[in-house]
Amino acid sequence: MTTPASDHTAPTNPSPVYATPGLPRRLAAMVYDSLLLMAVSILYGAIAVGINLLINGTPATGERVSWGNWGILVFIGWLLTLVLFFCYFWCKSGQTLGMKTWRMKMFDDNKMQLPSVKQCMIRCVCAPVSLLLFGAGYWLMYAFADRQTLHDKISNTRILLLSKEPKN
């Protein structure tokens, strides 16, 4: 045996040992990651409200916090925070916590290395569109022989299912 079972580097040519995960596994990882994104969003919202209160002061009793022209910037900042969350983890390790839990890892489809920032950004834009179109981008994985989703193909990335680590 030349490589240890815990080695999670992808082969130069994907083989049956490194299978492509199915849709249920991908959806389960998305549920895990959505819980993390909720926490990140709550933290972002708390910081944004705190800054708004420092700038505009506390509203009178019964009044709502007014965002004024800053509302759109806060929204764009929130979207960028979510994109940075995914890009950071995908570029650093190829996995979010949900992907790690479900033994999946993302690779550059050509080099079988960790994806570039550009690939991660493209994926962050395309994946929600795939999901919003009634999951069409995800269902297309059953139409492609290599079982990649539409955003896998567009971003030139590949999700592989990692082998189980031996229990000690």
Mean pLDDT: 88
Given the structure, what is the number of helices? Answer: 6
Poorly predicted regions: 1-7
* Radius of gyration from CA coordinates: 20 Å
The helix-strand sequence is HHHEHHHE
Quickly count the domains: 1
Largest sheet strand order: 1-2
Estimate the global geometry from the Cα principal axes. Answer: elongated
- Secondary-structure-derived class: mainly alpha
**Straight-line N-to-C gap:** 18 Å
Strand content: 5-15%
Number of E-type strands: 2
Largest sheet: 2 strands, antiparallel
| Helical content band | 40-55%
Structure overview:
The protein is mainly alpha-helical and 168 residues long. The chain has one domain (23-56, 69-161). The protein has helices at residues 23-56, 70-93, 97-101, 117-132, 136-139, 150-155, and strands at residues 104-108, 157-161. The chain has a two-stranded antiparallel ribbon. Helix 1 crosses helix 2. The longest helix is centred in the first third of the chain and has 34 residues, at 23-56. The radius of gyration is 20 Å and the shape is elongated. Residues 21-156 form the RDD domain. It is a multi-pass membrane protein.
Short description:
The chain is mostly helical and 168 residues long.
Q: What layout of secondary structure does this protein have?
A:
Layout: H1 23-56, H2 70-93, H3 97-101, E1 104-108, H4 117-132, H5 136-139, H6 150-155, E2 157-161
Antiparallel strand pairs: 1-2
Helix pairs in contact: 1-2, 2-4
